[in-house]
Design a protein that fits this description.
The protein has about 500 residues and is α+β, with helices and mostly antiparallel strands. Among the domains are: about 70 residues, no CATH class; about 45 residues, no CATH class. Helix content is about 40%, strand content about 15%. The chain has 12 helices and 18 strands. The strands form 6 sheets. Strands 4, 5, 6, 7, 8 and 9 form a 6-stranded antiparallel sheet that branches. Helix 6 runs antiparallel to helix 7. The longest helix has about 35 residues. The relative contact order is 0.13.
Length: about 500
């Protein structure tokens, strides 16, 4: 941080966005199916260009969506405070209230998809009229600065573009550092002289309130998503599809030919003066119709399976040229898709649709690489969400939760299994391994944070009723009167 003034930070962050814009726009373009054209001859006509347009087979959304659909946070388990004591259970509701207030049940998916697509996305946590909320920020419009980008989770400055410059209107951005938020205006991301920063205001947190969600970070601090490494392979698939369409259009059908016979020509009628006429009554002669190049225009021949070809000249020969094979092109396309599946760690049956006659063990083996990939994303994104929860707690004045570095987000189990199988497995864990039953409640498929808290409250009420019944039983002399488990007094018969 040679110069940490707000203007210097804004200028540096805008320059980063300007530097990365070309690559990020290309990634976004490929995700939306707007790929580079496959190779075609320089003199390609409109028909070739139409085939090139139809050759685009966009696999990128599948590479992003497959792991993203397995990432879903539906709970948060608090850890311990700085004194080593458990954080009060009410803090769970407070933190989950922030989650619900921010509508992150639905909006979390966009954050994961942005991180997987570009390599990183961001979440801003701030105070609003509705309370403390968090929202996602796109990598196309947001940049952050770190002293150690490979290891630091907290940036010392971040900027997001609110409105890009258009015409005479200047661009507007928001800048955050460790204490304040600043309004930024600029005319060009690459022109430092046009950047203006106001005096700012306190944002309420003790550190920059922007959190990075990175799909993958190396020790140089570089992030990379799932699309960028696949662009070359996507282009190869498009080229193969284009070549297949060309072969299918021009060589996949038999070509009939006739030798020793001139094709009939389109004719035009001439009057007595030798001028072209369309009135048959005035026509006295005819001649072949010439095209723009000065050559006669052949007449169209309506030939189908019901027509019989014949010629008066005995030297005329009819024949056909066989269709060209396209099986090799189809095999090449299949191979490229398999390469895409292997490199992206996507199960082949997700891409090829070939799932018949696969045993449960084979399906599990095919899903193993994807499961490991998803587990890595959950670990990385989970740490980011924990920082978001700490920031939200600090802004809400909850000091215990703000210092809770042992909390963990709960990821929904997206594996397909029946409730009966899960209940049987959880029952065995409780009976055979002695795991507390309450500790297994979170592992019930489909249980939400709200349901879990309701269960805890109902269990506490049941415990209170049970303790009351036990106390009444001990305090009552043996007179034949007993207390039922619900606390009601029952006279024995």
């Amino acid at each position: 941080m040679a110069d940490s003034s707000p203007k210097a930070l804004a200028t540096e962050l805008l320059a980063i966005l300007d530097r990365d814009e070309t690559l990020l726009l290309k990634i976004d373009r490929y995700d939306r199916g707007k790929h580079d054209d496959p190779y075609m001859p320089p003199q390609a006509d409109d028909e070739y260009k139409l085939l090139a347009k139809r050759a685009v087979s966009n696999w990128m959304p599948l590479l992003v969506g497959t792991p993203a659909q397995a990432l879903y946070v539906d709970g948060f388990r608090p850890g311990k405070s700085t004194e080593g004591l458990p954080v009060a259970s009410s803090s769970t509701s407070t933190e989950w209230a922030h989650w619900q207030r921010s509508r992150l049940d639905a909006r979390q998916a966009a954050i994961y998809r942005g991180a997987l697509k570009f390599g990183h996305s961001f979440v801003l946590t701030e105070k609003t009229k509705r309370g403390v909320v968090s929202k996602g920020l796109s990598a196309l419009k947001t940049a952050a600065l770190y002293e150690d980008p490979a290891n630091d989770e907290t940036p010392y400055a971040a900027l997001t573009i609110v409105k890009a410059p258009r015409g005479e209107a200047k661009g507007v951005a928001r800048l955050w550092d460790g204490k304040r938020e600043y309004a930024v205006t600029y005319e060009s991301k690459s022109d430092a002289d046009t950047v203006r920063v106001d005096t700012g205001k306190l944002h309420g947190a003790s550190e920059c309130p922007v959190t990075r969600f990175a799909a993958s970070v190396d020790l140089e601090g570089r992030t990379i998503g799932v699309i960028e490494p696949m662009i070359a392979l996507q282009d190869r698939i498009n080229q193969t599809v284009f070549d297949t369409l060309v072969a299918q259009t021009y060589t996949s059908h038999e070509v009939r030919y006739a030798t020793g016979m001139a094709p009939p020509m389109q004719m035009e009628m001439l009057d007595e003066a030798g001028n072209v006429t369309t009135d048959p009554n005035l026509a006295v002669d005819s001649r072949p119709k010439l095209g723009p190049d000065g050559n006669p225009i052949p007449a169209q021949i309506n030939h189908n399976a019901r027509r019989f070809l014949f010629a008066e000249d005995p030297d005329v020969k009819f024949g056909s040229l066989p269709a060209g094979p396209i099986g090799s092109l189809i095999d090449s396309l299949d191979m490229s898709i398999r390469h895409l599946a292997a490199i992206s760690q996507t199960p082949p049956h997700h891409l090829l649709g070939q799932i018949a006659n696969l045993s449960a063990e084979a399906l599990l083996a095919a899903e193993t690489a994807l499961s490991r990939k998803i587990a890595e994303f959950q670990s990385i994104f989970g740490e980011a969400w924990e920082r978001v929860f700490r920031l939200a707690a600090e802004l809400e004045g909850n000091d215990a939760s703000a210092e809770d570095f042992h909390g963990e987000v709960q990821w929904r189990d997206m594996e397909s299994r029946s409730l009966a199988q899960a209940a049987d497995a959880l029952g065995k864990l409780a009976d055979q391994l002695g795991i507390p039953k309450r500790g297994l409640w979170k592992r019930v498929p489909g249980v939400t944070q709200t349901e879990y808290e309701d269960w805890e409250q109902m269990a506490e009420e049941d415990d209170s009723v049970g303790q009351l019944a036990t106390a009444l039983t001990r305090a009552t002399p043996d007179t034949g009167i007993t207390a039922s488990p619900d606390g009601q007094v029952v006279v024995a018969a």
